[in-house]
Amino acid sequence: IKEEALKNINGMNSLEELENIRIKFLGKKGELTSILRDMGKLSKDERPVIGQLANEIRQEIEKELADAKDRFKEKLKLERIEKEKIDISINKRTRKLGHKHPLLATIEELENLFISMGFTVVEGPEIETVEYNFDALNSPENHPSRDLTDTFYITEDILLRTHTSPVQIRAMKTIKPPIRIVSAGRTFRFDDVDDTHSPMFHQLEGLVVDENISMANLIDTINIFVKELFGKDMKTRFRPHYFPFTEPSAEVDVSCFSCKGKGCPVCDGTGWSMELLGCGMVHPKVLEVCGIDPEKYSGFAFGMGIDRITMVKYGINNIRLLFENDNRFLEQF
Ligand code: PHE
């Protein structure tokens, strides 16, 4: 019986089969059970011997059954784990990641640079009054930039700002000196589109007003900024210029990006490449209009085209690419 039982147990293939084997040998009508039940028929001498033997065999079969059951459960578990396995190495990403627009990246870089120099970032409206865009900035009544052919007017008094300088007026009218702000945003001029011009473009304006602010502070600030933005070996050149709202005024060139000022074919041997910004000492009349005493305070301001800086930084040769939002272009950044 024992051998047959063990043989059966080894050959089983399911938990039901195992249960059937148990019933066959150990169940109420099982083979071993019937032997134990018939013990009464045996002689006094045979009874303990057969009884002990039968009990031992029963224990052995029970143990074998339990072991077989454990082994089988373990096997089922392994099979299930194998079936449920997920291959996390497969790259199933279907959504594409976005890209930061090079213009926005440049604006953030410039803003962070000025923040590190103690400036605060402020915003101004793209739709401005003629008063803030021209009058308060000391722009003469007959200045050509006021012409209908240069400026997008909405009404006689309201226009799309032609530069970010009206943010200076808004800042000086709302903040008491010391003032140290920058402001980036869209600006509009009635220009035809070509590789370097667009009727909508971007500027960043800076303004500092405090006691004892001098031209030296302006030059120093611009020089630090240029070296941080383009590299330590970049130089600047301040050329006298005219703006109605600053006096004295200057335009600033930076050294050629190819030769760093040595002179090469790219810069026609001059060593200078682009005109980077306009700047100057805030005109006393402008301070006055904003309620700031020009006897006590002085300031400097600067304004630069961000589109051109972006194009130089990223090697973009056509301004249209910045505004067309062609994915083939944007995906490169
Ligand atoms: N607003 C001037 C422009 O658009 C730039 C500028 C800003 C010049 C501040 C001087 C001071 O050209």
Would you write up a description of this structure?
With 333 residues, the protein is α+β, with helices and mostly antiparallel strands. Helices cover 41% and strands 20% of the residues. The chain contains twelve helices and nine strands. It has helices at residues 2-11, 15-26, 31-37, 46-84, 102-116, 130-133, 166-174, 215-230, 284-289, 306-314, 320-324, 327-330; strands at 120-121, 127-129, 158-160, 179-188, 200-210, 236-243, 246-255, 272-282, 298-305. Helix 1 packs parallel to helix 4 and helix 5 (102-116) packs across helix 10 (306-314). The relative contact order is 0.10. The structure holds phenylalanine. Phenylalanine is lined by residues 163, 165, 243, 246, 249, 278-280, 301-303. GO terms for molecular function: ATP binding; catalytic activity, acting on a protein; magnesium ion binding; phenylalanine-tRNA ligase activity; transferase activity; tRNA binding. It is found in: Cytoplasm.
